Automatic annotation (TrEMBL):
GO terms for molecular function: FMN binding; oxidoreductase activity, acting on NAD(P)H. Residues 4-47 are annotated as: Disordered. InterPro entries: Flavodoxin/NO_synth (IPR008254), Flavoprotein-like_sf (IPR029039). Residues 52-205 form the Flavodoxin-like domain. This is Flavodoxin-like domain-containing protein. Pfam families: Flavodoxin_4 (PF12682). The keyword Signal applies. Keywords: Signal. Residues 10-36 have a biased composition (Low complexity). It comes from the Bacteria. Coiled coil: none annotated.
């Protein structure tokens, strides 16, 4: 139940991020916004030994949508990685803030914790590409838990850059984890994301 509050953060109200960094953000809300009822159902954690956690950070909804599909297909529990101080809704401001945090190697404080961490063997961690890396909050998350013996599977959405240089950072921060092949979907691939996700999970033999 810990992450109920974090569902309220700015991401759900944020404008869709446009395809390229140089173009202006779209004004309308993310077209793939999930109805509130679906959110509530998906965000409740329950104890499942040998369980799967699908943790994600998302500002404009793309990675959240991907996380929800992964959770559906694996039977995993969703957890939103959200910062204690929510990010601005303003795309241009966010670009600057994200770049600044990256250059400072910031570890922004998070809002909420995973309950029953020990009950999860498999942890998916998803995030958007921000300036060719993960948002710094993802590193806060990875460094907040003991990944010894866990299987870590990254996933990502981006305009075009994929994981960028984030995988090296993930490996460094998630000490003790065994990392499996991740899935990065670019904006054009997101149109067909269910198919991409299904075949990836089949290769990993992780769909239920
Ligand atoms: C601060 C910021 C920086 C970004 N930097 C990149 C980038 O370097 N390369 C890229 O391909 N996309 C970049 N994007 C686009 C996002 O990765 C893309 O829109 C992603 O799907 C957003 O995920 P979300 O909806 O879960 O927040 C950036 C977006 C933001 C907000």
């Amino acid at each position: 139940e810990q992450n109920t509050g974090s569902e309220e953060n700015s991401a759900s109200q944020a404008p869709a991020v446009s395809a390229s960094l140089s173009s202006a953000p779209a004004e309308e809300p993310a077209s793939d916004a999930i109805p509130e009822s679906a959110h509530d159902a998906a965000s409740s954690e329950s104890v499942k030994p040998g369980g799967t956690l699908v943790a994600y950070f998302s500002w404009s909804g793309n990675t959240r949508r991907m996380a929800e599909l992964i959770a559906q297909e694996t039977g995993g529990n969703l957890f939103e990685i959200a910062t204690a101080v929510p990010y601005t809704d303003d795309y241009n401001e966010l670009l600057d803030i994200a770049q600044q945090e990256q250059s400072e190697e910031a570890r922004p404080e998070l809002n909420g914790q995973v309950e029953n961490w020990d009950s999860y063997d498999t942890v998916f961690v998803g995030y958007p590409n921000w300036w060719s890396d993960a948002p710094m909050a993802v590193y806060t998350f990875l460094e907040s838990y003991d990944f010894t013996g866990k299987t870590l599977i990254p996933f990502n959405t981006s305009a075009s850059g994929g994981f960028g240089r984030s995988l090296a950072g993930m490996e460094e921060s998630a000490v003790g984890a065994t990392m499996l092949e991740g899935l990065a979907l670019t904006e054009s691939e997101l149109e067909d994301e269910q198919a991409h996700i299904t075949s990836w999970l089949e290769e990993l033999a992780l769909n239920r």
